[in-house]
Amino acid sequence: MIKTIKKALPTILAVAILIAGDESRIGTSGGNQVLVPAGARGIAMAGSERVYSHGLESVYWNPAGLARSTGTSALATNMALFNDVGVNYFGVASPLGDLGTIGITVKSIDMGDIPVTTVEDMDGAGGGMFKPTLSTMGLTYANAFSDRANFGVTAKVVYESIPRASASAFAFDIGVQYTGFAGMDGLGLALVLNNIGTDMHYEGSGLTSAAQGDNGISDFYNLESSYDKLPSTYNLSLSYSVAGAILGMTFTSHNFSYDELTLGAEYTLMDMVSLRAGMTSPMLEEDSSNDGETLFGVNFGAGLKYSLYGVNMVVDYTMRNQGTFDTSNVLSLGLLF
């Protein structure tokens, strides 16, 4: 397995260079909801730990982690992003014996009520309201190559809609986990490709406009929206597990934004209480106009696992630093049957 990974690394690194982002392409992608993270543990560690990531939360960070599931599980996560914007993430998974594990997840973003405005009513005083739909639905399959190596793949549909217009895309997430890397117990490597798929393209009657003539409407015409690629990412992670602690580091290459380096740590006591922290650092270009600040800084979190009537309950909480925005609160509740 190690020989296979070593042979594959040049190709993987070449892919990372090809999809690497730069400052000129920031903000030119579509379906950016796929970058909104899910799961209190992963967010607390800033996405730095993708080797030992496990269960339904790992579907977002590394689908290979679903192979670590030992029984039927369910997960519900809520994150207050900022203002009245919220993120909900739900999932269920079940092992299929030697065939692997399969899981279904849904992530939805609640944008709150937005006033309807027109040319005549630019302030929305008419009282009409609408709510955009932003959701990602995924089907994940994961299995183990051996007792040290896992792989997983998620097929997902990305959907967005506003009144009388909508867009959708189909994408894949592909990941592997390998522990005992380079012959060292506790050292692990993870490789993840996210959001490799079709373009987002809005269609609908909301893109139809009318041309005004001297005697009223003279003609109708459709505004053609752009075809925008999804914000794909390549992630290379190293983690080290020792004496109840996990240290993680991940390099993330974006095709429509700055590359990032994330660092994080988790300490678990008596397989019951976990403490976590993580930070994100953007890898800016030398002539970047960015002053070095990043939207998300240092995160902190904690988790509690408790067995009740044969069911393992896991409660995780994270405070996510959002720079000039208020701190975001993330709460996850998981059940393992």
Explained architecture:
The chain has helices at residues 2-19, 40-44, 58-61; strands at 73-82, 85-95, 101-110, 114-115, 129-130, 133-144, 149-162, 165-179, 187-197, 208-213, 216-222, 233-242, 245-254, 259-269, 273-283, 298-308, 311-320, 328-336. Mean pLDDT is 85; it is low at 9-21. The strands form three sheets. It has a 14-stranded antiparallel barrel. A two-stranded antiparallel ribbon has the order 4-5. A two-stranded antiparallel sheet has the order 10-11. β6 (133-144) and β7 (149-162) form a beta hairpin. It has three helices and 18 strands. It has 337 residues and is mainly beta. The longest helix is centred in the N-terminal third of the chain and has 18 residues, at 2-19.
Question: What's the short story on this structure?
Answer:
This protein has 337 residues and is mainly β.
Tally of contiguous helical segments: 3
* Helicity level: under 10%
Roughly what is the average pLDDT, rounded to an integer?
A: 85
| Major β-sheet annotation | 14 strands, antiparallel, barrel
- How many beta-strand runs? 18
Terminal CA distance reads 32 Å
Radius of gyration: 22 Å
Strand percentage: over 45%
Would you identify the regions where 5 or more consecutive residues have pLDDT less than 50? 9-21
> How does the overall form come out from the CA principal axes?
elongated
Order of helices and strands: HHHEEEEEEEEEEEEEEEEEE
Question: Which secondary-structure class do the elements indicate?
Answer: mainly beta
For the biggest β-sheet, the strand order reads 1-2-3-6-7-8-9-12-13-14-15-16-17-18
